[in-house]
């Protein structure tokens, strides 16, 4: 209970600061929109092709945009003495991980609420008939991305080349999650008469559970000097 | 009667390891800090070298020394933000290596910049600090804490707009909202005007009256010793005693080259 209360305190603080500065959200929305525009122009007006690759393009956009959010996860603490400013308080250090994780999930989902409609327009996808399924995949994928990303961001926060190191370490670990999210999204968009997307959604659920348990377990070690 | 006891053991790396295995500090309920063969290295750089120290509860201790002497490192080790490389220690009767959480419940640390968020207001910073410490205070209590440091009129302003001295006052208010057994003040006078410095002295006096142990680290011996009862000098990673009265009378200031009168 104390763990969740302290996690929520960190979420409250981070979202309050983000609501005031809007640094991460604005940058992420513009960057994500730019990525989708570039892909859309590069592939041309072929609707069938755009729909076939829409899942991949969407998740590439989300992954690149998510990196911006992850890089800021602990850097935002710098003016207040860095991550040390959170470690100085009593209680389970996992509260820091959970707080940062929930914050990343909320901000990334907020960006996706702009990103998905933009993708629907650019790639000529019918969003409404598949809204629930797409929302489910987006939430599972975002949770998986944030679980691993928040952990790796803590590992790389004190590295000199952290902006480069974070994606280098993170993307290989995200391959199962990206495979699941891309395939599930594409199947839902182009039609899934055999319900094959269920396999990929189960992969996403398994990825989220396994990596959440591992990350939560070893986060206190990652926080040490 | 509060007291400190120290003894620097000038030991090599291996012998320190041997000491760690052979000697552990006793969990004496009368001691706020007890260190045995305590060392801290960053890579090859040995910042603290085999420190033995005992600080009784209720003591107000000034820790003086030049920049880079290891004062901040020692305070961060006592606050469990850094782990010792060699040796062992207890803070408030709890093992530094194994019982960090229990120690953090009892210890407050003020750093030079403080753990304050620029884009939160003064009151929000206090609220965050209290909640993270497991406290649930009434809004009036936050206001009262800010009034205590002279910031009641700017309680709703973001810290970004504050001067260095005002920011330091927020840090002091953070320290005062929770009960502490050990207060670690790193350069608490830095950036403060005369009134602010008097406020720090007053806080230290209040801490002493309530039996809280205080360690004040500063490179300005005159400032640190003014509010303290005893003085230690930390230089090249080793602690040695310093005549407190003499240090208090002097305006000794340390820089990276040594000590000088200012």
How far apart the termini of chain B lie comes to 33 Å
Could you tell me how far the N terminus lies from the C terminus of chain A, measured between alpha carbons in angstroms? Answer: 27 Å
What fraction of the residues of chain A are assigned to beta strands by DSSP?
A: under 5%
Count up the domains of chain A. Answer: 1
Task: Tell me the number of helical segments of chain B per DSSP (H or I, 4 or more residues long).
Answer: 9
Number of domains of chain B: 1
- Helix amount of chain B, in percent? 25-40%
Describe the protein in words.
The complex is a heterodimer of chains A (225) and B (262). With 225 residues, chain A is mainly alpha-helical. Chain A is built from eight helices and no strands. Chain A has helices spanning 2-21, 23-43, 47-75, 84-87, 94-123, 131-156, 162-190, 197-223. In chain A, helix 1 (2-21) crosses helix 5, helix 2 runs parallel beside helix 5 and helix 6 packs parallel to helix 8. With 262 residues, chain B is an alpha/beta fold. Chain B has a single domain, classed as P-loop containing nucleotide triphosphate hydrolases (Rossmann fold), CATH 3.40.50. Chain B has helices at 13-22, 71-78, 100-106, 122-132, 139-148, 164-176, 194-209, 221-227, 244-249; strands spanning 4-6, 31-42, 45-56, 60-64, 86-91, 94-95, 107-110, 182-186, 213-218, 230-235, 238-242, 252-255, 258-261. In chain B, the strands form three sheets. A six-stranded mixed sheet of chain B has the order 7-8-9-4-10-11, with helices on both faces. The longest helix of chain B has 16 residues, at 194-209. Residues 8-24 and 256-262 of chain B have low confidence and may be disordered. Classes of the chains: A mainly alpha (225), B alpha/beta (262). At the A-B interface, helix 1 and helix 4 of A face helix 3 and helix 4 of B.
């Amino acid at each position: 209970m104390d763990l969740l209360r302290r996690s929520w305190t960190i979420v409250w603080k981070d979202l309050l600061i983000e609501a005031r500065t809007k640094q991460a959200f604005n940058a992420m929305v513009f960057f994500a929109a730019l990525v989708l525009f570039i892909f859309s122009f590069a592939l041309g007006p072929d609707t069938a092709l755009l729909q076939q690759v829409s899942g991949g393009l969407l998740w590439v956009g989300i992954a690149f945009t998510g990196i911006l959010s992850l890089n800021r996860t602990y850097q935002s603490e710098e003016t207040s003495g860095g991550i040390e400013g959170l470690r100085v308080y009593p209680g389970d250090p996992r509260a820091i991980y959970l707080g940062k994780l929930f914050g990343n999930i909320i901000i990334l989902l907020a960006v996706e609420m702009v990103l998905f409609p933009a993708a629907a327009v650019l790639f000529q996808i019918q969003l409404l008939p598949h809204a629930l399924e797409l929302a489910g995949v987006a939430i599972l994928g975002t949770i998986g991305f944030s679980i691993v990303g928040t952990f790796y961001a803590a590992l790389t926060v004190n590295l000199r080349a952290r902006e480069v190191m974070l994606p280098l370490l993170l993307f290989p670990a995200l391959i199962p999650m990206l495979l699941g999210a891309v395939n599930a999204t594409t199947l839902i968009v182009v039609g899934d008469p055999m319900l094959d997307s269920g396999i990929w959604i189960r992969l996403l659920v398994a990825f989220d559970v396994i990596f959440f348990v591992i990350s939560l377990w070893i986060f206190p070690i990652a926080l040490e000097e | 009667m509060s007291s400190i006891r120290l003894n620097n053991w000038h030991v090599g790396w291996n012998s320190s390891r041997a000491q760690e295995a052979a000697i552990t500090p006793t969990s004496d309920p009368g001691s706020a800090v007890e260190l045995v063969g305590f060392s801290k290295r960053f890579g090859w750089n040995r910042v603290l070298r085999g420190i033995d120290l005992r600080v009784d509860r209720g003591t107000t201790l000034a820790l003086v020394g030049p920049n880079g002497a290891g004062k901040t490192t020692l305070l961060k080790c006592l606050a469990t933000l850094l782990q010792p490389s060699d040796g062992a220690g207890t803070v408030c009767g709890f093992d530094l290596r194994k019982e960090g959480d229990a120690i953090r419940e009892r210890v407050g640390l003020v750093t030079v910049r403080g753990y304050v968020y620029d884009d939160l207001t003064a009151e929000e910073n206090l609220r965050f600090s209290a909640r993270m410490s497991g406290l649930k205070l009434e809004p009036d209590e936050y206001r009262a804490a800010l009034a205590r440091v002279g910031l009641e009129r700017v309680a709703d302003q973001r810290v970004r707009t504050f001067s260095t001295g005002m920011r330091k006052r927020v840090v002091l208010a953070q320290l005062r909202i929770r009960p502490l057994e050990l207060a670690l003040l790193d350069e608490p006078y830095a950036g403060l005007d005369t009134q602010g410095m008097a406020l720090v002295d007053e806080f230290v006096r209040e801490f002493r009256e309530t039996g809280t142990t205080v360690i004040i680290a500063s490179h300005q011996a005159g400032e640190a010793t003014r509010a303290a009862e005893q003085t230690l000098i930390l230089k090249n990673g080793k602690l040695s005693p310093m005549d407190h009265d003499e240090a208090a009378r002097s305006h000794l200031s340390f820089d990276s080259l040594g000590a000088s009168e200012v």
